[in-house]
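Exercise 7. Given the encoded structure of a 470-residue chain, write a plausible sequence.
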Protein backbone atom coordinates (compact mmCIF):
# COMPACT_ATOMS: atom_id res chain seq x y z
CA UNK A 1 0.00 0.00 0.00
CA UNK A 2 1.33 3.44 -0.96
CA UNK A 3 2.48 5.49 2.07
CA UNK A 4 1.00 8.97 1.61
CA UNK A 5 2.42 10.48 4.78
CA UNK A 6 4.06 13.87 4.27
CA UNK A 7 7.87 13.99 4.30
CA UNK A 8 7.94 15.70 7.69
CA UNK A 9 6.05 12.77 9.18
CA UNK A 10 8.49 10.26 7.70
CA UNK A 11 11.43 12.11 9.21
CA UNK A 12 9.87 12.50 12.67
CA UNK A 13 8.62 8.90 12.86
CA UNK A 14 11.90 7.45 11.57
CA UNK A 15 13.84 9.43 14.18
CA UNK A 16 11.53 8.23 16.93
CA UNK A 17 11.86 4.59 15.85
CA UNK A 18 15.64 4.84 15.77
CA UNK A 19 15.67 6.24 19.33
CA UNK A 20 13.32 3.62 20.83
CA UNK A 21 13.94 0.11 19.45
CA UNK A 22 13.64 -1.47 22.90
CA UNK A 23 10.17 0.07 23.37
CA UNK A 24 9.04 -1.45 20.10
CA UNK A 25 10.39 -4.84 21.16
CA UNK A 26 8.67 -4.65 24.54
CA UNK A 27 5.37 -3.72 22.91
CA UNK A 28 5.50 -6.79 20.69
CA UNK A 29 6.20 -8.98 23.73
CA UNK A 30 3.36 -7.38 25.70
CA UNK A 31 0.86 -8.06 22.90
CA UNK A 32 1.07 -11.73 23.79
CA UNK A 33 -0.56 -11.07 27.16
CA UNK A 34 -2.26 -7.65 26.98
CA UNK A 35 -4.78 -6.60 24.29
CA UNK A 36 -2.80 -4.27 22.04
CA UNK A 37 0.10 -4.50 24.46
CA UNK A 38 -1.14 -2.10 27.14
CA UNK A 39 -3.59 -1.70 30.00
CA UNK A 40 -4.32 2.05 29.67
CA UNK A 41 -5.78 3.13 26.35
CA UNK A 42 -4.43 6.65 26.76
CA UNK A 43 -0.84 5.33 26.74
CA UNK A 44 -1.01 3.93 23.21
CA UNK A 45 0.20 5.85 20.18
CA UNK A 46 1.70 5.19 16.75
CA UNK A 47 4.25 3.86 15.84
CA UNK A 48 4.64 2.50 19.41
CA UNK A 49 4.46 3.93 22.93
CA UNK A 50 7.57 4.84 24.87
CA UNK A 51 8.27 2.27 27.57
CA UNK A 52 9.65 4.04 30.62
CA UNK A 53 12.13 2.35 32.95
CA UNK A 54 12.49 4.86 35.80
CA UNK A 55 11.85 8.39 36.99
CA UNK A 56 13.64 10.78 39.32
CA UNK A 57 12.54 14.32 39.95
CA UNK A 58 11.12 15.71 36.71
CA UNK A 59 13.16 13.36 34.49
CA UNK A 60 12.01 10.03 33.03
CA UNK A 61 14.35 7.46 31.52
CA UNK A 62 13.06 5.05 28.89
CA UNK A 63 14.12 1.46 28.25
CA UNK A 64 16.61 2.63 25.62
CA UNK A 65 18.31 5.01 28.06
CA UNK A 66 16.82 8.23 26.64
CA UNK A 67 15.93 10.92 29.17
CA UNK A 68 12.83 13.11 29.03
CA UNK A 69 11.56 16.16 30.85
CA UNK A 70 8.24 14.84 32.17
CA UNK A 71 5.33 17.15 31.33
CA UNK A 72 2.73 14.38 31.63
CA UNK A 73 3.25 13.48 35.29
CA UNK A 74 0.84 10.56 35.01
CA UNK A 75 -1.91 12.82 33.67
CA UNK A 76 -1.53 15.29 36.58
CA UNK A 77 -1.44 12.63 39.34
CA UNK A 78 2.19 13.43 40.16
CA UNK A 79 3.11 16.86 41.48
CA UNK A 80 6.27 16.13 43.54
CA UNK A 81 8.08 14.53 40.63
CA UNK A 82 9.30 10.96 40.78
CA UNK A 83 10.99 9.28 43.77
CA UNK A 84 10.68 12.35 45.99
CA UNK A 85 12.80 11.64 49.11
CA UNK A 86 10.05 12.45 51.63
CA UNK A 87 7.58 10.18 49.86
CA UNK A 88 10.07 7.36 49.37
CA UNK A 89 10.94 7.53 53.08
CA UNK A 90 7.27 7.50 54.10
CA UNK A 91 6.59 4.50 51.85
CA UNK A 92 9.55 2.53 53.18
CA UNK A 93 8.59 3.11 56.79
CA UNK A 94 4.95 2.16 56.24
CA UNK A 95 5.89 -0.89 54.17
CA UNK A 96 7.88 -2.14 57.14
CA UNK A 97 4.82 -1.71 59.35
CA UNK A 98 2.42 -3.30 56.85
CA UNK A 99 0.65 -1.98 53.77
CA UNK A 100 -3.03 -2.75 54.44
CA UNK A 101 -3.79 -3.97 57.95
CA UNK A 102 -7.53 -4.35 57.42
CA UNK A 103 -8.39 -2.18 60.43
CA UNK A 104 -8.57 1.55 61.24
CA UNK A 105 -5.25 3.32 61.68
CA UNK A 106 -4.19 6.70 63.03
CA UNK A 107 -2.97 7.88 59.64
CA UNK A 108 -6.52 7.70 58.26
CA UNK A 109 -7.70 10.38 60.65
CA UNK A 110 -4.52 12.41 60.15
CA UNK A 111 -4.92 12.47 56.38
CA UNK A 112 -8.63 13.32 56.74
CA UNK A 113 -7.88 16.13 59.17
CA UNK A 114 -5.39 17.63 56.74
CA UNK A 115 -7.84 17.53 53.83
CA UNK A 116 -10.71 18.95 55.85
CA UNK A 117 -8.53 21.77 57.17
CA UNK A 118 -7.64 22.83 53.63
CA UNK A 119 -11.16 22.60 52.18
CA UNK A 120 -13.94 24.17 54.30
CA UNK A 121 -16.68 22.40 52.29
CA UNK A 122 -15.13 19.05 53.21
CA UNK A 123 -16.65 18.55 56.66
CA UNK A 124 -16.40 14.76 56.57
CA UNK A 125 -14.55 12.45 54.18
CA UNK A 126 -14.27 8.76 53.29
CA UNK A 127 -11.57 6.95 51.33
CA UNK A 128 -11.46 4.67 48.31
CA UNK A 129 -8.85 3.78 45.70
CA UNK A 130 -9.32 6.02 42.68
CA UNK A 131 -11.12 8.97 41.17
CA UNK A 132 -13.51 6.57 39.45
CA UNK A 133 -14.59 5.19 42.83
CA UNK A 134 -14.70 8.66 44.39
CA UNK A 135 -17.11 10.08 41.80
CA UNK A 136 -19.19 6.88 41.75
CA UNK A 137 -19.59 6.96 45.53
CA UNK A 138 -20.30 10.69 45.63
CA UNK A 139 -23.14 10.17 43.16
CA UNK A 140 -24.47 7.22 45.13
CA UNK A 141 -24.32 9.29 48.32
CA UNK A 142 -26.33 12.07 46.66
CA UNK A 143 -28.96 9.65 45.43
CA UNK A 144 -29.33 8.12 48.86
CA UNK A 145 -29.61 11.53 50.55
CA UNK A 146 -32.15 13.01 48.14
CA UNK A 147 -34.12 9.85 47.34
CA UNK A 148 -33.86 10.73 43.65
CA UNK A 149 -32.29 8.80 40.78
CA UNK A 150 -31.39 11.28 38.04
CA UNK A 151 -28.05 13.04 37.81
CA UNK A 152 -26.69 15.74 35.52
CA UNK A 153 -23.26 15.62 33.92
CA UNK A 154 -21.48 17.94 31.56
CA UNK A 155 -20.79 17.20 27.90
CA UNK A 156 -17.10 16.33 27.68
CA UNK A 157 -16.71 15.85 31.42
CA UNK A 158 -14.52 12.96 32.52
CA UNK A 159 -15.28 11.45 35.93
CA UNK A 160 -13.84 7.96 35.59
CA UNK A 161 -15.00 4.63 34.22
CA UNK A 162 -18.36 3.81 35.83
CA UNK A 163 -21.50 3.72 33.69
CA UNK A 164 -23.24 6.87 34.92
CA UNK A 165 -20.41 9.09 33.75
CA UNK A 166 -19.45 7.26 30.55
CA UNK A 167 -21.94 9.43 28.69
CA UNK A 168 -20.51 12.14 26.44
CA UNK A 169 -17.11 12.06 28.03
CA UNK A 170 -14.61 13.78 25.79
CA UNK A 171 -12.84 10.56 24.81
CA UNK A 172 -16.06 8.95 23.47
CA UNK A 173 -18.20 11.68 21.91
CA UNK A 174 -18.50 9.83 18.60
CA UNK A 175 -20.96 7.09 17.75
CA UNK A 176 -24.77 6.86 17.79
CA UNK A 177 -26.48 9.97 19.18
CA UNK A 178 -29.61 9.73 21.32
CA UNK A 179 -31.98 12.64 21.96
CA UNK A 180 -32.64 13.44 25.62
CA UNK A 181 -36.24 12.56 26.42
CA UNK A 182 -38.34 15.52 27.47
CA UNK A 183 -35.84 18.12 26.25
CA UNK A 184 -35.79 20.11 23.00
CA UNK A 185 -33.62 19.13 20.04
CA UNK A 186 -31.29 22.03 20.81
CA UNK A 187 -30.04 20.17 23.90
CA UNK A 188 -26.95 17.93 23.59
CA UNK A 189 -27.49 14.50 22.14
CA UNK A 190 -26.27 11.61 24.31
CA UNK A 191 -23.43 9.35 23.21
CA UNK A 192 -22.63 6.24 25.23
CA UNK A 193 -19.22 4.65 25.56
CA UNK A 194 -19.22 1.14 24.13
CA UNK A 195 -20.45 -1.40 26.67
CA UNK A 196 -22.55 1.09 28.65
CA UNK A 197 -26.23 0.04 28.64
CA UNK A 198 -28.73 2.30 26.92
CA UNK A 199 -30.83 2.19 30.10
CA UNK A 200 -28.21 4.48 31.70
CA UNK A 201 -29.75 7.38 29.79
CA UNK A 202 -32.98 7.14 31.80
CA UNK A 203 -31.23 8.74 34.76
CA UNK A 204 -28.55 10.93 33.21
CA UNK A 205 -29.17 14.42 31.85
CA UNK A 206 -26.54 16.27 29.82
CA UNK A 207 -25.67 19.96 29.85
CA UNK A 208 -23.13 21.99 27.89
CA UNK A 209 -20.38 23.57 29.98
CA UNK A 210 -20.57 27.25 30.89
CA UNK A 211 -24.20 27.49 29.68
CA UNK A 212 -26.29 28.64 32.62
CA UNK A 213 -29.36 29.28 30.47
CA UNK A 214 -29.49 25.59 29.50
CA UNK A 215 -29.08 24.60 33.15
CA UNK A 216 -31.95 26.84 34.17
CA UNK A 217 -34.18 25.29 31.49
CA UNK A 218 -33.32 21.76 32.61
CA UNK A 219 -33.84 22.39 36.32
CA UNK A 220 -37.11 24.25 35.70
CA UNK A 221 -38.57 21.20 33.98
CA UNK A 222 -36.85 18.26 35.69
CA UNK A 223 -35.35 19.66 38.88
CA UNK A 224 -37.45 17.49 41.20
CA UNK A 225 -36.06 14.33 39.55
CA UNK A 226 -32.45 15.38 39.91
CA UNK A 227 -30.33 14.10 42.79
CA UNK A 228 -27.16 15.98 41.83
CA UNK A 229 -25.11 17.64 39.17
CA UNK A 230 -21.45 16.62 38.94
CA UNK A 231 -19.13 19.19 37.42
CA UNK A 232 -15.45 20.03 37.22
CA UNK A 233 -14.58 23.64 38.10
CA UNK A 234 -12.22 23.34 35.15
CA UNK A 235 -13.22 20.89 32.42
CA UNK A 236 -10.13 18.71 32.33
CA UNK A 237 -10.00 15.98 29.68
CA UNK A 238 -11.87 18.19 27.23
CA UNK A 239 -9.10 20.78 27.27
CA UNK A 240 -8.50 22.47 30.65
CA UNK A 241 -11.43 24.86 30.13
CA UNK A 242 -12.15 26.95 33.24
CA UNK A 243 -15.72 27.56 34.35
CA UNK A 244 -16.97 31.09 34.63
CA UNK A 245 -17.73 32.27 38.14
CA UNK A 246 -21.29 33.14 37.11
CA UNK A 247 -21.83 29.61 35.83
CA UNK A 248 -20.74 27.91 39.04
CA UNK A 249 -22.68 30.38 41.18
CA UNK A 250 -25.72 29.72 39.01
CA UNK A 251 -25.41 25.95 39.49
CA UNK A 252 -25.11 26.51 43.23
CA UNK A 253 -28.33 28.52 43.20
CA UNK A 254 -30.27 26.11 40.98
CA UNK A 255 -29.39 23.00 42.99
CA UNK A 256 -30.29 24.71 46.26
CA UNK A 257 -33.63 25.86 44.88
CA UNK A 258 -34.55 22.38 43.62
CA UNK A 259 -33.26 20.33 46.55
CA UNK A 260 -30.50 18.74 44.45
CA UNK A 261 -26.85 18.48 45.44
CA UNK A 262 -23.87 20.13 43.80
CA UNK A 263 -20.86 17.80 43.38
CA UNK A 264 -17.48 19.22 42.41
CA UNK A 265 -15.01 16.78 40.90
CA UNK A 266 -11.64 18.17 41.97
CA UNK A 267 -9.64 15.00 41.37
CA UNK A 268 -7.38 16.93 38.96
CA UNK A 269 -7.87 20.53 40.09
CA UNK A 270 -6.93 20.08 43.75
CA UNK A 271 -3.31 20.55 42.61
CA UNK A 272 -4.09 24.12 41.45
CA UNK A 273 -6.29 25.14 44.37
CA UNK A 274 -8.67 23.56 45.16
CA UNK A 275 -10.53 25.67 42.62
CA UNK A 276 -13.70 26.00 44.69
CA UNK A 277 -11.78 28.37 46.95
CA UNK A 278 -10.81 30.57 44.02
CA UNK A 279 -14.41 30.72 42.81
CA UNK A 280 -15.91 31.14 46.27
CA UNK A 281 -18.50 28.43 45.57
CA UNK A 282 -18.94 25.58 48.08
CA UNK A 283 -20.28 22.25 46.82
CA UNK A 284 -22.36 19.84 48.88
CA UNK A 285 -20.08 16.93 47.95
CA UNK A 286 -16.76 16.59 46.19
CA UNK A 287 -14.36 13.97 44.88
CA UNK A 288 -10.58 13.88 45.17
CA UNK A 289 -7.80 11.61 43.92
CA UNK A 290 -4.48 11.91 42.05
CA UNK A 291 -2.01 13.98 44.10
CA UNK A 292 -3.64 13.27 47.48
CA UNK A 293 -1.99 9.81 47.34
CA UNK A 294 1.51 11.05 46.56
CA UNK A 295 1.81 8.74 43.56
CA UNK A 296 -0.06 5.78 45.05
CA UNK A 297 -3.71 4.85 44.34
CA UNK A 298 -6.03 6.85 46.59
CA UNK A 299 -9.43 8.43 46.20
CA UNK A 300 -11.67 10.37 48.57
CA UNK A 301 -15.19 11.74 48.59
CA UNK A 302 -16.95 13.88 51.15
CA UNK A 303 -18.70 17.11 51.96
CA UNK A 304 -21.45 18.27 54.25
CA UNK A 305 -21.62 16.57 57.64
CA UNK A 306 -25.36 15.84 57.41
CA UNK A 307 -24.94 14.15 54.02
CA UNK A 308 -21.89 12.09 54.96
CA UNK A 309 -23.56 11.04 58.25
CA UNK A 310 -25.43 8.45 56.18
CA UNK A 311 -22.26 6.30 56.43
CA UNK A 312 -22.15 6.43 60.24
CA UNK A 313 -22.40 2.74 61.25
CA UNK A 314 -23.97 3.66 64.59
CA UNK A 315 -27.05 5.06 62.83
CA UNK A 316 -30.01 2.97 61.70
CA UNK A 317 -29.63 1.56 58.18
CA UNK A 318 -26.32 3.23 57.30
CA UNK A 319 -24.99 3.36 53.75
CA UNK A 320 -22.70 0.42 53.15
CA UNK A 321 -19.21 1.13 51.88
CA UNK A 322 -16.62 -1.64 51.57
CA UNK A 323 -13.23 -1.87 49.90
CA UNK A 324 -10.32 -4.20 50.63
CA UNK A 325 -7.79 -1.44 50.00
CA UNK A 326 -9.92 1.57 50.88
CA UNK A 327 -8.06 3.68 53.42
CA UNK A 328 -4.96 1.47 53.29
CA UNK A 329 -2.04 2.60 55.37
CA UNK A 330 0.51 2.74 52.56
CA UNK A 331 -1.41 5.13 50.31
CA UNK A 332 -2.53 7.29 53.22
CA UNK A 333 0.94 7.57 54.73
CA UNK A 334 2.56 8.55 51.45
CA UNK A 335 -0.42 10.80 50.70
CA UNK A 336 -0.06 12.60 54.02
CA UNK A 337 3.62 13.21 53.34
CA UNK A 338 2.62 14.59 49.92
CA UNK A 339 0.03 16.95 51.39
CA UNK A 340 2.45 18.18 54.06
CA UNK A 341 5.03 19.06 51.42
CA UNK A 342 2.58 20.59 48.94
CA UNK A 343 0.77 23.33 50.79
CA UNK A 344 -0.60 26.73 49.70
CA UNK A 345 2.87 28.22 49.18
CA UNK A 346 3.92 25.40 46.84
CA UNK A 347 0.59 25.57 45.01
CA UNK A 348 1.03 29.31 44.42
CA UNK A 349 4.64 28.93 43.27
CA UNK A 350 3.86 26.15 40.80
CA UNK A 351 0.80 27.97 39.50
CA UNK A 352 2.88 31.09 38.85
CA UNK A 353 5.40 28.98 36.95
CA UNK A 354 2.58 27.56 34.83
CA UNK A 355 1.16 30.97 33.99
CA UNK A 356 4.61 32.18 32.90
CA UNK A 357 5.09 29.08 30.75
CA UNK A 358 1.75 29.68 29.00
CA UNK A 359 2.96 33.13 27.96
CA UNK A 360 6.28 31.80 26.64
CA UNK A 361 4.66 29.03 24.61
CA UNK A 362 2.10 31.42 23.14
CA UNK A 363 4.79 33.95 22.23
CA UNK A 364 6.87 31.24 20.55
CA UNK A 365 3.89 30.09 18.45
CA UNK A 366 3.15 33.64 17.38
CA UNK A 367 6.79 34.21 16.51
CA UNK A 368 6.58 31.10 14.32
CA UNK A 369 3.54 32.59 12.58
CA UNK A 370 1.11 29.97 13.94
CA UNK A 371 -2.32 30.22 15.51
CA UNK A 372 -2.50 28.67 18.96
CA UNK A 373 -4.57 29.20 22.09
CA UNK A 374 -3.54 27.93 25.51
CA UNK A 375 -6.10 27.30 28.25
CA UNK A 376 -5.78 26.10 31.81
CA UNK A 377 -5.01 27.36 35.27
CA UNK A 378 -1.62 27.31 36.95
CA UNK A 379 0.19 23.99 36.63
CA UNK A 380 -2.48 22.46 34.32
CA UNK A 381 -2.18 23.70 30.74
CA UNK A 382 -3.73 22.68 27.42
CA UNK A 383 -2.72 23.51 23.85
CA UNK A 384 -5.43 24.23 21.26
CA UNK A 385 -4.49 24.85 17.63
CA UNK A 386 -6.30 27.77 16.01
CA UNK A 387 -7.83 30.87 17.51
CA UNK A 388 -11.19 31.85 19.01
CA UNK A 389 -13.26 31.26 22.13
CA UNK A 390 -13.12 27.91 23.94
CA UNK A 391 -16.00 27.73 26.40
CA UNK A 392 -16.97 24.06 26.25
CA UNK A 393 -16.04 20.60 24.98
CA UNK A 394 -17.52 21.14 21.52
CA UNK A 395 -15.30 24.19 20.98
CA UNK A 396 -12.26 22.10 21.91
CA UNK A 397 -13.33 19.15 19.78
CA UNK A 398 -13.82 21.38 16.74
CA UNK A 399 -10.21 22.52 17.11
CA UNK A 400 -8.94 18.95 17.51
CA UNK A 401 -10.77 17.59 14.46
CA UNK A 402 -9.52 20.34 12.16
CA UNK A 403 -5.79 19.79 12.54
CA UNK A 404 -5.27 16.32 10.97
CA UNK A 405 -2.09 14.62 12.30
CA UNK A 406 -0.52 17.75 13.78
CA UNK A 407 -0.97 16.82 17.48
CA UNK A 408 0.54 13.37 16.91
CA UNK A 409 3.49 14.75 14.94
CA UNK A 410 4.14 17.46 17.53
CA UNK A 411 4.04 14.81 20.25
CA UNK A 412 6.68 12.71 18.48
CA UNK A 413 8.79 15.74 17.55
CA UNK A 414 9.00 16.72 21.21
CA UNK A 415 9.75 13.15 22.30
CA UNK A 416 12.64 13.19 19.82
CA UNK A 417 13.93 16.25 21.67
CA UNK A 418 13.64 14.71 25.11
CA UNK A 419 10.31 16.18 26.21
CA UNK A 420 7.54 13.83 27.32
CA UNK A 421 4.12 15.33 26.59
CA UNK A 422 0.66 13.91 25.93
CA UNK A 423 -0.77 13.65 22.44
CA UNK A 424 -3.87 15.52 23.63
CA UNK A 425 -1.85 18.63 24.33
CA UNK A 426 -2.22 18.71 28.10
CA UNK A 427 0.86 19.76 30.10
CA UNK A 428 1.26 19.14 33.84
CA UNK A 429 4.07 20.73 35.84
CA UNK A 430 5.85 19.36 38.90
CA UNK A 431 7.72 20.91 41.81
CA UNK A 432 11.24 19.77 40.83
CA UNK A 433 11.13 21.67 37.52
CA UNK A 434 13.67 24.45 37.44
CA UNK A 435 13.81 27.54 35.28
CA UNK A 436 16.52 25.75 33.27
CA UNK A 437 14.18 22.78 32.69
CA UNK A 438 11.46 25.03 31.34
CA UNK A 439 13.93 26.90 29.12
CA UNK A 440 14.90 23.52 27.69
CA UNK A 441 11.22 22.79 26.97
CA UNK A 442 10.60 26.17 25.32
CA UNK A 443 13.67 25.66 23.12
CA UNK A 444 12.44 22.19 22.12
CA UNK A 445 8.99 23.69 21.47
CA UNK A 446 10.43 26.32 19.13
CA UNK A 447 12.49 23.72 17.29
CA UNK A 448 9.49 21.41 16.88
CA UNK A 449 7.36 24.24 15.50
CA UNK A 450 10.10 25.11 13.02
CA UNK A 451 10.30 21.49 11.91
CA UNK A 452 6.52 21.28 11.46
CA UNK A 453 6.00 24.70 9.85
CA UNK A 454 6.32 23.40 6.24
CA UNK A 455 3.78 20.66 6.97
CA UNK A 456 1.38 23.18 8.52
CA UNK A 457 1.79 25.64 5.65
CA UNK A 458 1.04 22.93 3.09
CA UNK A 459 -1.63 20.84 4.85
CA UNK A 460 -3.17 23.23 7.40
CA UNK A 461 -2.84 26.78 6.06
CA UNK A 462 -5.74 27.95 8.21
CA UNK A 463 -3.34 27.74 11.17
CA UNK A 464 -0.98 30.34 9.70
CA UNK A 465 -1.18 33.81 11.18
CA UNK A 466 -1.71 36.83 8.97
CA UNK A 467 1.62 38.46 9.72
CA UNK A 468 0.65 41.60 7.83
CA UNK A 469 -2.42 42.07 10.07
CA UNK A 470 -0.36 41.25 13.18
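Solution.
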Amino acid sequence: MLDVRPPEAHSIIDTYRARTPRSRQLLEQAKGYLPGGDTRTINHFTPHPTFMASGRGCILTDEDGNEYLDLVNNMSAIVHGHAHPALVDAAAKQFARGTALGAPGEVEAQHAQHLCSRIPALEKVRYCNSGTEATMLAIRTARAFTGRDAIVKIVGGYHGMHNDVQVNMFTSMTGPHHAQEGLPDTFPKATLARGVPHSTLRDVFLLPYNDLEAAEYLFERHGRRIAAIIVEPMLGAAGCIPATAAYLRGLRRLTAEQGALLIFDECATFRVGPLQLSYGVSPDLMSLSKIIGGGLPLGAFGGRDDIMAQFDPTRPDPLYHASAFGGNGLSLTVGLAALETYGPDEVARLNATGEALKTELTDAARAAGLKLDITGIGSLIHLHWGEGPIANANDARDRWTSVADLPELLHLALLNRGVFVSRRGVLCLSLPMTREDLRYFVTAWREALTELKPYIARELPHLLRDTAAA
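Remark. Residues 369 and 469 are 11 Å apart (CA to CA). Students should compare their own answers with the one above.
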